[in-house]
Amino acid sequence: DIVMTQSPDSLAVSLGERATINCKSSQSVLYSSNNKNYLAWYQQKPGQPPKLLIYWASTRESGVPDRFSGSGSGTDFTLTISSLQAEDVAVYYCQQYYSTPIFTFGPGTKVDIK
Amino acid sequence: EVQLVQSGAEVKKPGESLKISCKGSGYSFTSYWIGWVRQMPGKGLEWMGIIYPGDSDTRYSPSFQGQVTISADKSISTAYLQWSSLKASDTAMYYCARPNGGYGEALAFDYWGQGTLVTVSS
After folding, report:
1. How far is B4 from chain A (nearest CA, A)?
2. How confident is the model at residue B102 (pLDDT cuts 50, 70, 90)?
Protein backbone atom coordinates (compact mmCIF):
# COMPACT_ATOMS: atom_id res chain seq x y z
CA ASP A 1 0.00 0.00 0.00
CA ILE A 2 1.11 3.55 -0.67
CA VAL A 3 1.51 5.53 2.55
CA MET A 4 1.22 9.29 2.49
CA THR A 5 2.90 11.57 5.00
CA GLN A 6 2.59 15.34 5.42
CA SER A 7 4.62 18.02 7.14
CA PRO A 8 4.23 20.03 9.20
CA ASP A 9 1.26 18.82 11.24
CA SER A 10 0.20 22.44 11.63
CA LEU A 11 1.44 25.91 10.81
CA ALA A 12 0.48 29.47 11.57
CA VAL A 13 1.14 32.14 8.95
CA SER A 14 0.52 35.88 8.95
CA LEU A 15 -2.12 37.23 6.61
CA GLY A 16 -0.60 37.90 3.20
CA GLU A 17 2.38 35.63 3.84
CA ARG A 18 3.24 32.32 2.15
CA ALA A 19 2.18 28.95 3.51
CA THR A 20 3.93 25.78 2.36
CA ILE A 21 2.75 22.24 3.01
CA ASN A 22 4.73 19.14 2.09
CA CYS A 23 3.47 15.70 1.14
CA LYS A 24 5.52 12.58 0.60
CA SER A 25 4.43 9.22 -0.81
CA SER A 26 6.09 5.91 0.11
CA GLN A 27 6.49 5.10 -3.58
CA SER A 28 6.39 7.12 -6.75
CA VAL A 29 2.95 8.21 -7.95
CA LEU A 30 4.29 9.25 -11.36
CA TYR A 31 2.97 7.12 -14.21
CA SER A 32 5.71 6.89 -16.82
CA SER A 33 3.21 6.08 -19.59
CA ASN A 34 1.55 9.51 -19.42
CA ASN A 35 4.06 11.43 -17.29
CA LYS A 36 1.36 12.41 -14.80
CA ASN A 37 1.57 12.47 -11.02
CA TYR A 38 -1.52 10.87 -9.49
CA LEU A 39 -1.67 13.28 -6.56
CA ALA A 40 -4.46 15.58 -5.37
CA TRP A 41 -4.83 18.23 -2.68
CA TYR A 42 -8.01 18.94 -0.71
CA GLN A 43 -9.09 21.72 1.61
CA GLN A 44 -11.45 21.05 4.50
CA LYS A 45 -12.97 23.86 6.52
CA PRO A 46 -14.69 23.16 9.85
CA GLY A 47 -18.11 21.59 9.45
CA GLN A 48 -17.72 21.14 5.69
CA PRO A 49 -16.85 18.23 3.42
CA PRO A 50 -13.44 18.33 1.75
CA LYS A 51 -13.05 20.36 -1.43
CA LEU A 52 -10.77 19.41 -4.31
CA LEU A 53 -8.14 22.10 -4.89
CA ILE A 54 -5.47 20.53 -7.10
CA TYR A 55 -5.19 17.35 -9.17
CA TRP A 56 -2.40 15.87 -11.29
CA ALA A 57 -0.19 17.45 -8.60
CA SER A 58 -0.34 20.91 -10.15
CA THR A 59 -3.65 21.48 -11.98
CA ARG A 60 -6.04 23.78 -10.15
CA GLU A 61 -9.67 22.73 -10.02
CA SER A 62 -12.05 25.18 -11.67
CA GLY A 63 -12.82 28.14 -9.42
CA VAL A 64 -9.84 27.67 -7.11
CA PRO A 65 -7.96 30.96 -6.57
CA ASP A 66 -4.57 31.18 -8.23
CA ARG A 67 -2.85 31.82 -4.88
CA PHE A 68 -3.05 28.03 -4.50
CA SER A 69 -0.41 26.10 -6.41
CA GLY A 70 0.89 22.57 -6.40
CA SER A 71 4.30 21.30 -7.39
CA GLY A 72 6.53 18.26 -7.18
CA SER A 73 6.93 14.91 -8.86
CA GLY A 74 7.53 11.27 -8.03
CA THR A 75 7.36 11.06 -4.24
CA ASP A 76 7.68 14.66 -3.03
CA PHE A 77 5.01 17.30 -3.42
CA THR A 78 4.21 20.77 -2.15
CA LEU A 79 1.06 22.85 -1.80
CA THR A 80 1.74 26.57 -1.62
CA ILE A 81 -0.63 29.33 -0.65
CA SER A 82 1.18 32.39 -1.96
CA SER A 83 -0.63 35.02 0.12
CA LEU A 84 -2.68 33.61 2.97
CA GLN A 85 -6.20 34.95 3.35
CA ALA A 86 -8.47 34.56 6.36
CA GLU A 87 -10.73 32.21 4.42
CA ASP A 88 -7.83 29.80 3.84
CA VAL A 89 -7.87 28.66 7.48
CA ALA A 90 -8.50 24.94 7.06
CA VAL A 91 -6.97 21.50 7.12
CA TYR A 92 -5.25 20.45 3.91
CA TYR A 93 -4.89 16.84 2.78
CA CYS A 94 -2.93 15.23 0.00
CA GLN A 95 -4.21 12.05 -1.62
CA GLN A 96 -2.71 9.56 -4.04
CA TYR A 97 -4.80 7.95 -6.76
CA TYR A 98 -1.91 6.13 -8.44
CA SER A 99 -3.24 2.81 -7.14
CA THR A 100 -6.73 3.61 -8.42
CA PRO A 101 -9.35 2.49 -7.51
CA ILE A 102 -7.50 2.19 -4.21
CA PHE A 103 -6.76 5.53 -2.57
CA THR A 104 -4.94 6.89 0.46
CA PHE A 105 -4.99 10.28 2.14
CA GLY A 106 -2.23 12.01 4.02
CA PRO A 107 -2.82 12.79 7.71
CA GLY A 108 -3.56 16.46 7.08
CA THR A 109 -1.95 19.82 7.86
CA LYS A 110 -3.82 22.49 9.80
CA VAL A 111 -3.28 26.06 8.65
CA ASP A 112 -4.05 28.95 11.01
CA ILE A 113 -3.47 32.69 11.12
CA LYS A 114 -0.52 33.91 13.17
CA GLU B 1 -25.49 19.83 -11.66
CA VAL B 2 -23.79 16.86 -10.03
CA GLN B 3 -25.05 16.24 -6.50
CA LEU B 4 -24.45 13.57 -3.87
CA VAL B 5 -27.08 13.68 -1.14
CA GLN B 6 -26.55 11.56 1.94
CA SER B 7 -29.03 10.25 4.48
CA GLY B 8 -29.46 11.95 7.83
CA ALA B 9 -27.65 11.61 11.13
CA GLU B 10 -28.02 8.37 13.05
CA VAL B 11 -27.79 7.52 16.74
CA LYS B 12 -27.38 3.80 17.42
CA LYS B 13 -26.44 1.44 20.21
CA PRO B 14 -23.46 -0.94 20.10
CA GLY B 15 -24.35 -4.17 18.36
CA GLU B 16 -27.07 -2.63 16.19
CA SER B 17 -26.99 -2.68 12.41
CA LEU B 18 -27.05 0.36 10.15
CA LYS B 19 -27.20 1.25 6.47
CA ILE B 20 -26.56 4.80 5.30
CA SER B 21 -27.10 6.05 1.78
CA CYS B 22 -25.74 8.41 -0.85
CA LYS B 23 -27.95 9.37 -3.80
CA GLY B 24 -26.28 10.64 -6.94
CA SER B 25 -27.89 12.94 -9.47
CA GLY B 26 -26.92 15.12 -12.41
CA TYR B 27 -24.65 12.52 -14.02
CA SER B 28 -24.64 8.93 -15.26
CA PHE B 29 -24.61 7.05 -11.95
CA THR B 30 -23.45 3.80 -13.52
CA SER B 31 -20.43 5.38 -15.22
CA TYR B 32 -18.50 6.62 -12.17
CA TRP B 33 -17.16 5.00 -9.03
CA ILE B 34 -18.47 6.17 -5.64
CA GLY B 35 -16.26 5.97 -2.59
CA TRP B 36 -16.75 6.26 1.16
CA VAL B 37 -14.51 8.22 3.53
CA ARG B 38 -14.51 8.13 7.34
CA GLN B 39 -13.62 11.06 9.56
CA MET B 40 -13.53 10.31 13.26
CA PRO B 41 -14.08 13.25 15.63
CA GLY B 42 -11.19 15.68 15.35
CA LYS B 43 -9.25 13.36 13.04
CA GLY B 44 -8.25 13.09 9.40
CA LEU B 45 -9.78 11.52 6.32
CA GLU B 46 -9.64 7.73 5.90
CA TRP B 47 -10.55 6.10 2.59
CA MET B 48 -12.79 3.10 3.31
CA GLY B 49 -13.74 1.63 -0.02
CA ILE B 50 -15.35 2.20 -3.38
CA ILE B 51 -17.93 0.72 -5.72
CA TYR B 52 -18.57 0.94 -9.45
CA PRO B 53 -22.38 0.88 -9.73
CA GLY B 54 -22.21 -0.22 -13.36
CA ASP B 55 -21.12 -3.73 -12.43
CA SER B 56 -20.91 -3.57 -8.60
CA ASP B 57 -17.12 -4.02 -8.65
CA THR B 58 -16.17 -3.17 -5.05
CA ARG B 59 -12.79 -2.57 -3.40
CA TYR B 60 -12.01 -2.03 0.27
CA SER B 61 -9.19 -0.53 2.23
CA PRO B 62 -7.49 -3.33 4.22
CA SER B 63 -8.41 -1.38 7.35
CA PHE B 64 -12.12 -1.69 6.60
CA GLN B 65 -12.33 -5.04 4.78
CA GLY B 66 -14.78 -7.25 6.69
CA GLN B 67 -15.89 -4.35 8.91
CA VAL B 68 -18.36 -2.72 6.51
CA THR B 69 -20.21 -3.55 3.31
CA ILE B 70 -20.50 -1.21 0.35
CA SER B 71 -23.30 -1.72 -2.15
CA ALA B 72 -25.29 0.18 -4.75
CA ASP B 73 -28.75 0.14 -6.31
CA LYS B 74 -28.35 1.57 -9.78
CA SER B 75 -32.12 1.63 -10.33
CA ILE B 76 -32.36 4.46 -7.80
CA SER B 77 -28.83 5.88 -8.25
CA THR B 78 -27.94 5.22 -4.63
CA ALA B 79 -24.85 3.83 -2.94
CA TYR B 80 -24.84 2.37 0.56
CA LEU B 81 -22.49 1.80 3.46
CA GLN B 82 -23.61 -0.71 6.05
CA TRP B 83 -22.57 -2.27 9.33
CA SER B 84 -23.92 -5.50 10.79
CA SER B 85 -22.82 -4.80 14.35
CA LEU B 86 -21.81 -1.28 15.29
CA LYS B 87 -19.13 -0.43 17.82
CA ALA B 88 -18.57 2.79 19.74
CA SER B 89 -15.42 3.26 17.65
CA ASP B 90 -17.61 3.56 14.52
CA THR B 91 -18.71 6.99 15.76
CA ALA B 92 -17.66 9.32 12.96
CA MET B 93 -18.72 11.45 10.04
CA TYR B 94 -19.00 9.43 6.85
CA TYR B 95 -18.72 11.05 3.44
CA CYS B 96 -19.47 9.63 0.03
CA ALA B 97 -17.44 11.07 -2.81
CA ARG B 98 -17.28 10.63 -6.58
CA PRO B 99 -13.90 10.44 -8.28
CA ASN B 100 -13.53 11.87 -11.75
CA GLY B 101 -12.75 9.43 -14.55
CA GLY B 102 -14.64 6.31 -15.50
CA TYR B 103 -14.31 2.61 -14.77
CA GLY B 104 -10.81 2.27 -16.05
CA GLU B 105 -9.36 5.10 -14.01
CA ALA B 106 -10.95 6.63 -10.93
CA LEU B 107 -9.12 9.89 -10.26
CA ALA B 108 -9.41 12.73 -7.75
CA PHE B 109 -12.66 13.12 -5.82
CA ASP B 110 -14.33 16.15 -7.36
CA TYR B 111 -17.78 15.78 -5.79
CA TRP B 112 -18.60 15.06 -2.16
CA GLY B 113 -21.75 14.41 -0.18
CA GLN B 114 -22.61 16.58 2.80
CA GLY B 115 -21.71 13.81 5.25
CA THR B 116 -23.67 11.54 7.58
CA LEU B 117 -22.86 11.67 11.28
CA VAL B 118 -23.09 8.28 12.94
CA THR B 119 -23.06 8.19 16.74
CA VAL B 120 -22.81 4.84 18.50
CA SER B 121 -23.40 5.01 22.23
CA SER B 122 -25.00 2.89 24.89
Report:
1. 12
2. confident
